[in-house]
Amino acid sequence: MRSTKTIIFAAASVLALGACGGPGGGSGSGARDFVRGVGSSTVYPFATAVSEAYAKASGAKSPVIEATGTGAGMKLFCAGVGAQHPDIENASRRMKKSEYDECQKNGVKEIVEIQVGIDGIAFAEARNGPGFGLTPLDVYKALAANPFGKPNTAKTWKDVNPSLPAEPILVYGPPSTSGTRDALKELILEAGCKTDAATAALKDSDKDKYEATCHNIREDGPYVDAGENDNLIVQKISQNPKAIGIFGFSFLEENPDSLKGITMSGIQPTYQTISDYTYPGARPLYIYVKKQHLAPIKSLQGYVAEWAKSWGADGLLQKKGMVIAPEDVRAKNADIVAKMTPLDPAGLK
């Protein structure tokens, strides 16, 4: 079972190292001699695998990766330029326009966006579970704080859908700092929410109300925030056949003896359905690189290049459970890595 335990480094020594230089990158004087990455717990095991491969191949110090969650990692990444700030943000969703603007405000002017693969937010149960089959509408009615604008009173899955078991709703899922939580809201809850025409119309007439109605998750017990440790969710549901867990697909794939996937709109979460995006919870995975750190953090370029060496159809990441992106996507992002082309923020939301 893959561990997502956060690697902690000596913060005091990093803070003492000084800045990486000005907006143009500056000199390497006083810079760290290792790469520091933060962010997604979903991307974390892949990032650590690439770190180990890079250190072994280059002889450089192994990059230090922390599983902070995508949202919390973005805050750390965008806080500024200098050795006390991370070089890389691992993300299980795309950077938001508001996060990009925060980066710009704090002097993080050039950000390189690289899609490293694909993942899915998988719904799973224990091997001896009841055999759930859900739809985005079922999940929305079960987990939304105010489905279609009314307080959520559903206690059992049968309350949500008469065809589902009369079992209490108990879902272990990611925290608010997680990109997986963002993907849950945007890919699954919102899809269920939009099935009601009047609610869907709010997107144009009252965006704030639409966001609250479609995205807010109930806090009265049925949804349990399990933190950034996806292995904890695996343990919880494997021990309770009546519980459901939500996490990255790779964790489902790595635990076939204790877990089974739950269909979403009749589609099983599999490598194939995620790679072709037919599974409703499929999503891209990214890393974001602070271009201003390339000069002072000497091993940063090499570490990022190691990602491109690892994401092929028969590469390290595929062996670690990542769903490999199509060939054209890999080629496009390999070119971004080679040229370190900064992100165009025009398409951010």
From TrEMBL:
It comes from the Bacteria. It holds the Pfam family PBP_like_2. The keyword Mitochondrion does not apply. PROSITE patterns: PROKAR_LIPOPROTEIN. Keywords: Signal. Residues 30-305 form the PBP domain. Residues 1-21 form the signal peptide. InterPro entries: PBP_domain, Phosphate_ABC_transporter. This is Phosphate ABC transporter substrate-binding protein. It comes from Novosphingobium silvae.
